[in-house]
Amino acid sequence: MVSVCMATYNGAAFVKEQINSILTQLKSEDELIISDDGSTDGTLDILSEIADDRIRLYHGNFRDVIRNFQHALSKAEGDHIFLADQDDVWLPGKVAKMIDLLQKYDLVISDSEVVDEQLQLLHASFFAYFGSGKGLLKNMARSTYYGSCMAFRKSLLDGALPFPATREIGHDLWIGLVAEMTGTVCFYPEALIKYRRHGETFTSAGTGKSKRGLITKLKGRMIMMKEVIKYYLKYKICKKV
């Protein structure tokens, strides 16, 4: 069974296109879990009009994408979990290819085509553009674990929840770091989604410009390091017992 977990918030412009690209790849026993964080733009009207028993819609008022995704993930019942953003488009064969890879790996993250709002190609390979790849310290310094491209085993999710109570570590980065510490990871070099970027959110400097100062960034890295060390020590102790 596959569980696709999507967090929505004011995604009326593109959410239906994304959902259609997902549902065509799911079997009758699979599920698409959507956690909406209080949308006010018509997103809920669009979701309610899609008649498909595989969709499970939940409501929240988190005003926080990490908590919203955690809410969706806490409802997942499948053996294999996929994360999905509300505005991308999944390419045909994505689910089947990643399920096959998950027979060997605990977490798989695919490459993606970076596109604009009209799905016009900006960059053929996110991996090449952003320098994606494995590495605990590498990804703590600059995360290349993008949830929109990730799938993982339910056993990995059980070990990653609940997420650390900090906004310094994204939900997708945390799952990636836990996989690096406890399991096996595959960065799959084929683009399996169209990763839609809006306006100037994808720049020559990467995926947006940070407005945070150096001191704030360093404090954030220290918080992240603390959470990683705490988790790793707990994991090693539990493994010995």
Structural overview:
With 241 residues, the protein is α/β, with parallel strands linked by helices. It has helices at residues 15-23, 43-49, 65-74, 94-101, 126-130, 136-141, 154-160, 171-182, 214-240; strands at residues 2-8, 31-36, 55-59, 80-84, 89-90, 107-115, 121-123, 150-153, 185-196. Strands 1, 2, 3, 4, 5, 6, 7, 8 and 9 form a nine-stranded mixed beta sheet that branches. α1 links the parallel β1 and β2. α8 packs across α9. The two termini are 31 Å apart. Mean pLDDT is 93; it is low at 200-205.
Topology summary:
Elements: E1 2-8, H1 15-23, E2 31-36, H2 43-49, E3 55-59, H3 65-74, E4 80-84, E5 89-90, H4 94-101, E6 107-115, E7 121-123, H5 126-130, H6 136-141, E8 150-153, H7 154-160, H8 171-182, E9 185-196, H9 214-240
Parallel strand pairs: 1-2, 1-4, 2-3, 6-9
Antiparallel strand pairs: 4-8, 5-9, 6-7, 6-8
Helix pairs in contact: 7-8, 8-9
